[in-house]
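User: I've been trying to design a sequence by hand for this structure and keep getting stuck. Would you show me what you'd pick, starting by listing the structure so we're on the same page?

Assistant: Good idea, let's start from the same input. This is the structure you sent:
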């Protein structure tokens, strides 16, 4: 039976098979959760990210709405899945579709790597300014649909940095249950 929970915390401290990063298209690090994950994982993570080619789309890095998997290095998690969410402009630039793509692609990579537990941050809702409530709705609906269709045994944790985010996720999970 699939299990989805929302918790408050720092995703770098999660003891799961994989943590998801809210990355940018270069995959070469940044601020927010991306910076925290790179600091906690150590420099070998950046070295592996460089093997994706680093930013000159479409040849390197990772396009918006997709994800790439690396090892977790010094993290408790075995893997990091680097998902690139959209920068929110006005909702009319395929932002929802791209955000959904991040979650689907991350879950697909997790399933392909036989992952049993995965933790997500709230992708795109920091520097990329995606409205939290809408992003939360997309995250929960997309993950639940994926689990229902494919991976009943995988457990998913939404790791919220703020109390407000946590309340939003708990409300959404309650409504969806
Ligand atoms: N654990 C869990 N959540 C966190 C943590 C943490 N340690 N730190 C921040 N958050 P953001 P984005 C939350 O800005 O909007 C980077 O520079 C944060 O409160 O990290 O997708 C990348 O390189 C927010 O709810 O990611 C990109 O350039 C959420 O994580 C760009 O920012 C996402 O905030 C991506 O922007």
């Amino acid at each position: 039976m699939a299990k989805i929970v929302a918790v408050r915390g720092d995703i770098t401290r999660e003891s799961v098979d994989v943590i998801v990063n809210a990355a940018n298209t270069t995959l070469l690090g940044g601020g927010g959760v991306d910076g925290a994950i790179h600091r906690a994982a150590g420099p070998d993570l950046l070295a592996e990210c460089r093997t994706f080619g680093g930013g000159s789309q479409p040849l390197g890095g990772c396009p918006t709405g997709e994800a790439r998997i690396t090892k977790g290095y010094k993290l408790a998690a075995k893997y990091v899945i680097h998902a690139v969410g959209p920068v929110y402009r006005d909702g009319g630039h395929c932002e929802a579709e791209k955000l959904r793509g991040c979650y689907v692609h991350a879950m697909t990579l997790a399933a392909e790597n036989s992952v049993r537990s995965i933790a997500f941050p709230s992708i795109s809702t920091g520097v990329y300014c995606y409205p939290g409530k809408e992003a939360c709705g997309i995250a929960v609906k997309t993950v639940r649909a994926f689990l229902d269709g494919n991976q009943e045994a995988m457990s998913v944790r939404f790791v919220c940095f703020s109390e407000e985010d946590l309340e939003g996720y708990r409300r959404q999970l309650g409504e969806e249950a």
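That's my pick for every position. To get oriented when you compare it with your attempt: The chain has a mean pLDDT of 94. The longest strand covers residues 3-8.
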